[in-house]
Fold:
Amino acid sequence: ELKVEQNPLFLSMQEGKNYTIYCNYSTTSDRLYWYRQDPGKSLESLFVLLSNGAVKQEGRLMASLDTKARLSTLHITAAVHDLSATYFCAVAGDMRFGAGTRLTVKP
Amino acid sequence: EAGVVQSPRYKIIEKKQPVAFWCNPISGHNTLYWYRQNLGQGPELLIRYENEEAVDDSQLPKDRFSAERLKGVDSTLKIQPAELGDSAVYLCASSLVYEQYFGPGTRLTVT
Structure:
Protein backbone atom coordinates (compact mmCIF):
# COMPACT_ATOMS: atom_id res chain seq x y z
CA GLU A 1 0.00 0.00 0.00
CA LEU A 2 1.29 3.42 -0.96
CA LYS A 3 2.23 5.55 2.02
CA VAL A 4 2.90 9.28 1.83
CA GLU A 5 4.65 11.08 4.66
CA GLN A 6 5.01 14.81 4.96
CA ASN A 7 7.18 16.64 7.39
CA PRO A 8 7.00 18.76 9.26
CA LEU A 9 3.28 18.63 10.04
CA PHE A 10 3.39 22.07 11.65
CA LEU A 11 5.69 24.88 10.65
CA SER A 12 5.89 28.33 12.12
CA MET A 13 8.14 30.68 10.21
CA GLN A 14 9.14 34.28 10.40
CA GLU A 15 8.65 36.49 7.41
CA GLY A 16 11.69 36.64 5.21
CA LYS A 17 13.01 33.20 6.17
CA ASN A 18 13.48 30.15 3.99
CA TYR A 19 12.26 26.64 4.69
CA THR A 20 11.61 23.29 3.03
CA ILE A 21 8.69 20.88 3.34
CA TYR A 22 9.42 17.24 2.58
CA CYS A 23 7.22 14.58 1.04
CA ASN A 24 8.36 10.96 1.09
CA TYR A 25 6.41 8.15 -0.53
CA SER A 26 6.78 4.40 -0.37
CA THR A 27 6.25 3.00 -3.88
CA THR A 28 7.27 3.97 -7.37
CA SER A 29 5.36 6.80 -8.99
CA ASP A 30 6.15 9.16 -11.82
CA ARG A 31 3.80 11.96 -10.87
CA LEU A 32 3.50 14.07 -7.77
CA TYR A 33 1.23 16.98 -6.91
CA TRP A 34 1.41 19.88 -4.49
CA TYR A 35 -1.72 21.66 -3.30
CA ARG A 36 -2.52 24.58 -1.06
CA GLN A 37 -5.59 24.73 1.17
CA ASP A 38 -6.74 27.79 3.10
CA PRO A 39 -8.97 27.28 6.16
CA GLY A 40 -12.52 26.37 5.16
CA LYS A 41 -11.62 26.40 1.48
CA SER A 42 -11.02 23.80 -1.18
CA LEU A 43 -7.68 22.76 -2.64
CA GLU A 44 -5.72 24.87 -5.08
CA SER A 45 -3.26 23.17 -7.41
CA LEU A 46 0.28 24.51 -7.08
CA PHE A 47 2.50 22.12 -9.04
CA VAL A 48 2.37 18.88 -10.99
CA LEU A 49 5.76 17.19 -11.22
CA LEU A 50 5.93 14.65 -14.02
CA SER A 51 9.42 13.21 -14.11
CA ASN A 52 12.57 12.57 -12.15
CA GLY A 53 14.49 15.77 -11.63
CA ALA A 54 11.51 17.97 -12.40
CA VAL A 55 11.70 21.41 -10.84
CA LYS A 56 8.95 24.00 -10.96
CA GLN A 57 8.83 27.48 -9.48
CA GLU A 58 6.03 29.93 -8.92
CA GLY A 59 6.77 33.08 -6.98
CA ARG A 60 8.30 32.18 -3.63
CA LEU A 61 7.56 28.46 -3.98
CA MET A 62 9.72 25.90 -5.72
CA ALA A 63 8.97 22.19 -5.96
CA SER A 64 11.25 19.35 -7.01
CA LEU A 65 10.94 15.62 -7.52
CA ASP A 66 13.45 12.81 -7.09
CA THR A 67 11.71 9.61 -8.12
CA LYS A 68 14.70 7.44 -7.25
CA ALA A 69 14.70 8.68 -3.67
CA ARG A 70 10.88 8.83 -3.67
CA LEU A 71 11.13 12.35 -2.37
CA SER A 72 9.64 15.67 -3.27
CA THR A 73 10.40 19.01 -1.67
CA LEU A 74 8.53 22.29 -1.53
CA HIS A 75 10.92 25.13 -0.83
CA ILE A 76 9.72 28.45 0.47
CA THR A 77 11.90 31.48 -0.15
CA ALA A 78 11.59 34.69 1.86
CA ALA A 79 8.24 33.74 3.36
CA VAL A 80 5.41 36.27 3.55
CA HIS A 81 2.22 36.15 5.61
CA ASP A 82 0.09 35.36 2.55
CA LEU A 83 1.76 31.96 2.31
CA SER A 84 0.12 30.85 5.57
CA ALA A 85 -1.99 27.80 4.65
CA THR A 86 -1.90 24.01 4.70
CA TYR A 87 0.20 22.38 1.99
CA PHE A 88 -0.44 18.85 0.77
CA CYS A 89 1.54 16.58 -1.47
CA ALA A 90 -0.22 13.78 -3.33
CA VAL A 91 1.20 10.86 -5.25
CA ALA A 92 -0.35 9.55 -8.44
CA GLY A 93 -1.32 5.93 -8.73
CA ASP A 94 -4.14 5.94 -6.26
CA MET A 95 -3.90 9.69 -5.56
CA ARG A 96 -2.80 9.31 -1.98
CA PHE A 97 -2.35 12.52 -0.03
CA GLY A 98 0.02 13.32 2.77
CA ALA A 99 -1.32 14.56 6.09
CA GLY A 100 -0.50 18.15 5.22
CA THR A 101 1.89 20.77 6.57
CA ARG A 102 0.25 23.64 8.42
CA LEU A 103 2.37 26.67 7.69
CA THR A 104 2.10 29.86 9.69
CA VAL A 105 4.19 32.85 8.69
CA LYS A 106 4.61 35.42 11.42
CA PRO A 107 5.74 39.04 11.04
CA GLU B 1 -14.40 29.24 -17.59
CA ALA B 2 -16.64 27.82 -14.86
CA GLY B 3 -14.95 25.66 -12.28
CA VAL B 4 -16.13 22.44 -10.70
CA VAL B 5 -19.60 22.91 -9.24
CA GLN B 6 -20.85 21.00 -6.24
CA SER B 7 -24.14 21.02 -4.40
CA PRO B 8 -25.27 21.29 -1.76
CA ARG B 9 -22.50 23.18 0.00
CA TYR B 10 -23.69 22.13 3.43
CA LYS B 11 -25.88 19.29 4.61
CA ILE B 12 -26.99 18.27 8.08
CA ILE B 13 -28.78 14.96 8.49
CA GLU B 14 -29.59 12.51 11.23
CA LYS B 15 -27.83 9.17 11.28
CA LYS B 16 -29.42 6.39 9.26
CA GLN B 17 -30.82 8.93 6.76
CA PRO B 18 -29.74 8.91 3.10
CA VAL B 19 -27.84 11.79 1.50
CA ALA B 20 -26.67 12.60 -2.00
CA PHE B 21 -24.04 14.96 -3.36
CA TRP B 22 -23.88 16.28 -6.91
CA CYS B 23 -20.87 17.34 -8.96
CA ASN B 24 -20.63 19.05 -12.34
CA PRO B 25 -17.03 18.94 -13.61
CA ILE B 26 -15.28 21.42 -15.84
CA SER B 27 -16.54 21.09 -19.38
CA GLY B 28 -14.50 18.60 -21.39
CA HIS B 29 -12.79 16.98 -18.41
CA ASN B 30 -13.01 13.23 -18.82
CA THR B 31 -11.70 12.28 -15.40
CA LEU B 32 -13.76 12.87 -12.28
CA TYR B 33 -12.77 12.16 -8.68
CA TRP B 34 -14.65 12.00 -5.40
CA TYR B 35 -12.68 12.53 -2.21
CA ARG B 36 -13.54 12.61 1.46
CA GLN B 37 -11.62 14.94 3.74
CA ASN B 38 -11.86 14.55 7.49
CA LEU B 39 -11.00 17.47 9.70
CA GLY B 40 -7.28 18.02 9.92
CA GLN B 41 -6.43 15.34 7.37
CA GLY B 42 -5.61 15.10 3.70
CA PRO B 43 -8.27 14.10 1.18
CA GLU B 44 -8.90 10.40 0.68
CA LEU B 45 -9.84 9.18 -2.78
CA LEU B 46 -13.19 7.39 -2.85
CA ILE B 47 -13.69 6.81 -6.56
CA ARG B 48 -12.26 7.87 -9.90
CA TYR B 49 -14.12 7.90 -13.20
CA GLU B 50 -12.76 7.92 -16.71
CA ASN B 51 -15.77 9.10 -18.68
CA GLU B 52 -18.57 6.84 -17.47
CA GLU B 53 -16.37 4.05 -16.15
CA ALA B 54 -15.37 3.77 -12.52
CA VAL B 55 -11.69 2.82 -12.86
CA ASP B 56 -10.71 3.00 -9.19
CA ASP B 57 -13.27 2.46 -6.45
CA SER B 58 -11.11 0.45 -4.09
CA GLN B 59 -11.52 2.96 -1.25
CA LEU B 60 -15.28 3.33 -1.62
CA PRO B 61 -17.18 1.69 1.29
CA LYS B 62 -19.53 -0.20 -0.94
CA ASP B 63 -21.90 -1.33 1.76
CA ARG B 64 -23.29 2.18 2.14
CA PHE B 65 -21.72 4.36 -0.54
CA SER B 66 -22.60 4.40 -4.21
CA ALA B 67 -21.72 6.66 -7.09
CA GLU B 68 -22.69 7.13 -10.67
CA ARG B 69 -21.61 9.24 -13.60
CA LEU B 70 -24.27 9.04 -16.23
CA LYS B 71 -23.33 10.19 -19.74
CA GLY B 72 -19.79 10.82 -18.55
CA VAL B 73 -20.48 14.32 -17.26
CA ASP B 74 -22.24 14.98 -13.94
CA SER B 75 -21.78 12.64 -11.04
CA THR B 76 -23.70 11.80 -7.88
CA LEU B 77 -22.30 10.29 -4.69
CA LYS B 78 -24.80 8.72 -2.31
CA ILE B 79 -24.61 7.48 1.25
CA GLN B 80 -27.33 5.23 2.60
CA PRO B 81 -27.63 4.99 5.53
CA ALA B 82 -25.36 7.69 6.89
CA GLU B 83 -23.35 7.08 10.06
CA LEU B 84 -21.85 9.55 12.51
CA GLY B 85 -18.38 8.79 11.15
CA ASP B 86 -19.39 9.98 7.69
CA SER B 87 -19.25 13.61 8.84
CA ALA B 88 -16.62 15.17 6.60
CA VAL B 89 -16.15 17.37 3.57
CA TYR B 90 -16.81 15.60 0.28
CA LEU B 91 -14.76 17.01 -2.55
CA CYS B 92 -15.20 16.53 -6.26
CA ALA B 93 -12.37 17.18 -8.71
CA SER B 94 -11.94 16.87 -12.44
CA SER B 95 -9.01 16.73 -14.82
CA LEU B 96 -8.30 16.68 -18.52
CA VAL B 97 -4.71 15.42 -18.45
CA TYR B 98 -2.78 15.65 -15.18
CA GLU B 99 -3.82 18.72 -13.24
CA GLN B 100 -6.83 18.30 -10.97
CA TYR B 101 -9.27 21.09 -10.28
CA PHE B 102 -11.25 20.84 -7.08
CA GLY B 103 -14.77 22.01 -6.36
CA PRO B 104 -15.72 23.86 -3.18
CA GLY B 105 -16.86 20.69 -1.43
CA THR B 106 -19.96 19.62 0.48
CA ARG B 107 -19.67 19.73 4.25
CA LEU B 108 -21.72 16.88 5.71
CA THR B 109 -22.69 16.75 9.36
CA VAL B 110 -24.37 13.61 10.63
CA THR B 111 -26.07 13.99 14.02
